[in-house]
Amino acid sequence: MFSGIIAAVGRITHLTAREAGFRLQVEAGTLGLDDVALGDSIAHNGVCLTVVAKEGNHFMVDVSPETLSCTVGLDAPGPVNLEKALRLSDVIGGHLVSGHVDGVGEVLRFDPVGDNRLLEIRAPREIAKFIARKGSVTVNGTSLTTNEVAGDIFTINLIPHTLENTTLHLLQAGSRVNLEVDLIARYCERLLSAERG
Questions:
Q1: CB-side neighbour CA atoms (13 Å) of 37
Q2: What is the rounded CA–CA span in Å between residue 97 and residue 74?
Q3: Distance (Å, rounded) from C-alpha 166 to C-alpha 7?
Q4: What secondary structure letter does DSSP report for 173?
Q5: Residue 2 gets which letter from DSSP?
Q6: Cα–Cα distance for residue pair 170/119, rounded to 1 Å
Q7: How would you label 13-45 residue by residue, b for 16+ Cβ within 10 Å and e otherwise?
Q8: Which residues lie below 8 Å from residue 1, measured CB to CB, with a gap of 6+?
Q9: pTM as predicted
Q10: Digits of tens for pLDDT over the chain (197 positions)?
Q11: Rg (Cα) of the chain, in Å, rounded?
């Protein structure tokens, strides 16, 4: 589990093709690796991946074809939002995030509003029902609060701190982003559908 509070911006520096998928080499940026062991989970743009090797300020993770088919941002070198998995004693500054991407959204607008940015995203229809006004959603691993929701389109206000400490400042109209909906909303829908069925 994660909280959606990005700890560092790292960088995928190298991809090695495997029989299925890729092994990524990731430069950790300011993310401390002293307490990271092989087998630990680190979220990369909201995708939970397992550390399989580490050396210095780099670590390696494997990405399966299934993960590549339902996410963006893990198939080429470039910057990534990083967050270590939560410990039970950690403060949850964002919201409960599983690191399992529900779908890929499309950025429709990324407009300046003073020193903030208005981010407008179209979500896949099958997950749009889980996104509520003033609710939580994860965009590329970042826990954010929605402003408005209309059908499958929602807006978010990004403050300067978020822009400076994540990769979200790189977005533009047409960018594709990893989305994870609120875990509680997902379970509520499942319980209600089970009762009806």
A1: 1
A2: 19
A3: 9
A4: T
A5: B
A6: 12
A7: eebeeeeebbebbbbbeebebeebeeeebbbbb
A8: 85, 86, 96, 97, 98, 99
A9: 0.94
A10: 999 999 999 999 999 999 999 999 999 999 999 999 999 999 999 999 999 999 999 999 999 999 999 999 999 999 999 999 998 888 888 888 999 999 999 999 999 999 999 999 999 999 999 999 999 999 999 999 999 999 999 999 999 999 999 999 999 999 999 999 998 888 888 888 877 76
A11: 17
| Token duo for residue 51 | 């550390």
Structure tokens at 38: 């092989």
Q: How many residues would you count in the chain?
A: 197
Vertex 193 angle, CA 190 and 194, to 5°: 85
Q: What is the rounded CA–CA span in Å between residue 30 and residue 166?
A: 12
Domains of the chain in sequence order: 8-84 (2.40.30.20), 103-196 (2.40.30.20)
Tokens found for residue 101: 């991407």
- CA proximity to 107, closest of 181, 164, 175, 156: 175
Cα–Cα dist 185/6, whole Å: 22
- Angstrom distance (rounded) from CA 117 to CA 121: 13
Cα angle, residue 173 at apex, residues 170 and 174 outer, rounded to 5°: 100
